[in-house]
């Protein structure tokens, strides 16, 4: 079974259990905390992914790191992953969990690439437009990319709107090469 498929199944089961026991808010905070730990600690990432470290050592480390600091549901879930030797896919499980939760809450993640920062009113207008099109709440991430030159490139779900000067120049170049322009 592929890593992503297994991670999806674990995340789906975990979100279902957390929801059933009315602990989704606490578990979501735990997931955010663990995600930040994974992003911020190279040692923790290497520890989690290491096939050399024995399961017993990982179990005791997980207990020491998380017992009493996160909800019991999350602690038991991570302990289960370690017991099943699936802790190496924890980062993928966390991503899948967040994606599933956003899906349940009707939130989409959108990324806009621009050459210069957007003004707050431009950002609000863009969010409002995407929400009107998708009928979902939007979590917008802005990336400053000088290669865009001007305009913007917006990506959400499977949709890409590329109104960047760079894209227009590339399109024009292709047309010249083909002799269409």
Your description of this structure?
The chain is of the alpha+beta class and 181 residues long. The chain folds into 2 domains: 3-103, Peroxidase, domain 1 (Orthogonal Bundle), CATH 1.10.520.20; 107-178, no CATH class. Helix content is 62%, strand content 14%. It contains 8 helices and 4 strands; from the N terminus they run ααααααβαβββα. It has helices at residues 3-20, 24-40, 42-49, 55-66, 72-83, 90-105, 120-134, 165-178, and strands at 107-114, 137-144, 152-156, 159-162. The protein has a 4-stranded mixed sheet. α1 (3-20) packs across α6. The radius of gyration is 21 Å and the shape is elongated. It starts with a helix and ends with a helix.
Topology of this structure?
Elements: H1 3-20, H2 24-40, H3 42-49, H4 55-66, H5 72-83, H6 90-105, E1 107-114, H7 120-134, E2 137-144, E3 152-156, E4 159-162, H8 165-178
Parallel strand pairs: 1-2
Antiparallel strand pairs: 1-3, 3-4
Helix pairs in contact: 1-6, 2-6, 4-5
């Amino acid at each position: 079974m592929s890593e992503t498929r297994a991670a999806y199944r674990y995340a789906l089961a975990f979100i279902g259990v957390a929801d059933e026991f009315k602990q989704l808010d606490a578990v979501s905070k735990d997931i955010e905390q663990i995600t930040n730990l994974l992003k911020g600690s190279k040692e923790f990432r290497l520890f989690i992914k290491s096939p050399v470290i024995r399961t017993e050592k990982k179990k005791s480390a997980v207990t020491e790191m998380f017992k009493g600091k996160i909800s019991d549901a999350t602690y038991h879930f991570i302990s289960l992953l370690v017991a099943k030797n699936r802790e190496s896919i924890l980062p993928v499980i966390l991503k899948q969990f967040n994606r599933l939760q956003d899906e349940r809450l009707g939130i989409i993640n959108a990324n806009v690439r621009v050459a210069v920062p957007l003004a707050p009113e431009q950002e609000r207008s863009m969010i409002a437009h995407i929400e009107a099109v998708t009928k979902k709440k939007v979590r917008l991430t802005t990336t400053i990319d000088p290669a865009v030159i001007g305009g913007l490139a917006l990506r959400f779900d499977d949709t890409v709107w590329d109104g960047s000067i760079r894209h227009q120049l590339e399109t024009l170049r292709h047309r010249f090469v083909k002799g269409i322009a």
